Amino acid sequence: MRISLFLTLVFQLVLAQDRIFEVHPYGRL
């Protein structure tokens, strides 16, 4: 169960980063 929760958290973090990069193209710099 803990592994599934960890994967969900990582997945949400990845989606959040993708959204931030889409909103702020220069966020990576």
UniProtKB/TrEMBL annotation:
Species in which this protein is naturally found: marine metagenome
Origin organism lineage: unclassified sequences, metagenomes, ecological metagenomes
Entry protein name: Uncharacterized protein
